[in-house]
Amino acid sequence: MKPTATKRPDAATRRAQLLDAADAVFITHGVNAPLELVVERAGVGRATLYRQFPDRDAILLALLERSTERLQEQAQALKERPDAFFALMAYLSERIVRSPALSDYWRSSSLSDPRFAHLRRQVWSTFAPALERAQAQGLVRADVQARDLSLLIGMLGAALRGTSDAERRRLAQQALDVIRRGLRPDAQEHAVRE
Q: Cys bridge to 134: 31, 85, 187, 194, which one at CB 3.0-4.6 A?
């Protein structure tokens, strides 16, 4: 009988496994957690981690890229809904609740940092059709632009300082309600009158 060879995972599978492990570690311990925890969680050697990701920033950037890809998938799934803009905001807030440390990393990065510029543009372009549809439906003020999303996402992230998932979810809902009211076309009229 011939011994069966164990098939090693391909690079893409190994990369996804490492990102899943890093995401779980960073959710629990923050983005400055020892990378040894990522290695342990993934069940790989250090060399495997460093072959895929030369440093912590490379891991964090890959996690942000993956989050952006998932946002794009969500936008595609919601594209026919008139309220897709707010559904995407709710999706983002859930991601922020799940991984506040990654959100902090995203928010604290400089807007001019070239490592993140392409991701910001991707997020803006992902939201743009949903924003235009919401504006056409009269759900969002006409002066709101896709570039304003960096500010809105930053506001969401800053609001989610609860100590438990339940508290962060409550704060997320409250922040989303405030953002929704502030984006309504009649909100502009109220601000002018005051």
A: 85
The pLDDT, as a whole number, for residue 69 is 93
- List Cβ neighbours of 160 (8 Å cut-off, separation of 6 or more): 93, 96, 97, 100, 103, 168, 171, 172, 175
Reported as a single tens digit per residue, the pLDDT across 142-185 is: 999 988 888 888 788 777 666 777 887 888 888 889 988 999 99
| Range scoring the smallest mean pLDDT among 50-54, 122-126, 166-170 | 166-170
Domain with CATH 1.10.357 in the chain: 64-193
3-class SS string, 36-55:
HHHHHHHCCCHHHHHHHCCC
> Token pair of 132, please?
């235009």
Q: What is the phi/psi pair of residue 136, to 5°?
A: -65, -30
Could you tell me which CATH number the domain at 8-54 has? 1.10.10
Q: What angle do CA 181, 154, 24 make, to 5 degrees?
A: 120
Whole-number pLDDT of residue 111: 61
Could you please state the CATH topology (level 3) that the domain comprising 64-193 is classified under: Tetracycline Repressor; domain 2 (1.10.357)
Helices 56-78 and 35-42 cross at an angle (nearest 10°) of 60
Tens digit of each residue's pLDDT (9 = 90 or more) over 15-40: 999 999 999 998 888 888 999 999 99
